[in-house]
């Protein structure tokens, strides 16, 4: 006959000892589980995977074998304000109310801040810099990669924004250009193939195959996720930025950029017919 636990007869006087032993085992197990949980919290054992460079729910590791980069908190921008950028921060203050709707994540730069003069390759493969492209006007600088899903999703909207507002400027009228800088480091042909695949017609293809621009931006508290987009003036002074994707072809985005082009004054409404 198979013996069941409930049929076992314990010797007299052994109950309290066995109960005490069980209690000790339970306490020991609880201590062990607590230690494991503590290690998991500190070192990420068994926890969610690290964030890739891309931000948002669609963030992924680079499928081309690029290293996964943990999302880091952006540090406060160090140093004294750049007084030469005071006009840009004044513009940022005046357009702050337009950061709404599709552009609610736009952060006006109220502390005068200069963006580094990023170095990258032009569409012809020749070295150039941020100050040398886009003419004498505003630039919407977008740092992106083909393996960044949010970057890929917003690229058609950036192309449309360039089509609707892109201009060289002149005769007292500021120009505007979307400067999209790709930081793929593996296959230099991949960004162009992507542009061709989705029908990009208006954006110039700038490339930084060493991703140095992404590192340089960290000096001013930018470049801690992809996409990173900054609205700057002709002097390289930042008016505002977004960490993450946005609907750049939306009415909200167009209104904000037009107001920035006008020096912070909202564009006048068209007269009723």
UniProtKB/TrEMBL annotation:
Subcellular location per UniProt equals:
Cell envelope
- Give the record's keywords alphabetically: Cytochrome c-type biogenesis, Disulfide bond, Membrane, Redox-active center, Transmembrane, Transmembrane helix
Gene3D superfamilies for the chain: Glutaredoxin (3.40.30.10)
Cite the Pfam families for this sequence. Redoxin
What is one Gene Ontology biological process annotated in the Swiss-Prot or TrEMBL record?
cytochrome complex assembly
List the transmembrane segments.
23-45
Gene Ontology molecular function: any one: disulfide oxidoreductase activity
Which top-rank group of organisms is this from?
Bacteria
Keyword Iron-sulfur set for record: no
* Residue ranges of domain Thioredoxin in the record: 109-262
- Which PROSITE patterns does the protein's record reference? THIOREDOXIN_1, THIOREDOXIN_2
In which broad location class does this protein mainly occur, judging by the first location in its UniProt entry? Answer: other
The Gene Ontology CC terms held by the record are: cell envelope
Listed PANTHER family: THIOL PEROXIDASE
Protein's UniProt name: Thiol:disulfide interchange protein TlpA
Which species is the source of this protein?
Starkeya nomas
């Amino acid at each position: 006959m198979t013996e069941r636990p409930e049929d076992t007869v314990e010797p007299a006087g052994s109950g309290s000892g066995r109960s005490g032993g069980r209690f000790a085992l339970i306490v020991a197990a609880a201590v062990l589980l607590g230690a494991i949980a503590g290690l998991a919290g500190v070192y990420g054992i068994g926890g969610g995977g690290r964030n890739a460079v891309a931000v948002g729910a669609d963030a992924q590791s680079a499928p081309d074998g690029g290293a996964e980069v943990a999302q880091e908190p952006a540090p406060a921008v160090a140093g004294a304000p750049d007084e030469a950028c005071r006009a840009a921060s004044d513009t940022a203050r005046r357009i702050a109310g337009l950061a709404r709707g599709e552009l609610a994540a736009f952060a006006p730069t109220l502390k005068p801040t200069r963006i580094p003069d990023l170095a990258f390759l032009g569409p012809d493969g020749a070295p150039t810099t941020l100050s040398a492209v886009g003419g004498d006007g505003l630039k919407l600088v977008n740092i992106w990669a083909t393996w960044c899903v949010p970057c890929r999703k917003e690229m058609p909207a950036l192309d449309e924004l360039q089509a609707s507002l892109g201009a060289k400027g002149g005769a007292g009228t500021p120009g505007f250009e979307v400067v999209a800088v790709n930081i793929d480091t593996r296959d230099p042909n991949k960004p162009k193939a992507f542009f061709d695949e989705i029908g990009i017609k208006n954006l110039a293809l700038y490339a930084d195959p060493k991703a140095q621009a992404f590192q340089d931006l960290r000096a001013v508290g930018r470049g801690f996720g992809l996409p990173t987009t900054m609205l700057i003036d002709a002097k390289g002074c930042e008016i505002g930025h977004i960490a993450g994707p946005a609907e750049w072809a939306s009415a909200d985005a167009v209104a904000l950029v037009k107001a920035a082009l006008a020096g912070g004054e909202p564009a006048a409404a068209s007269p009723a017919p």
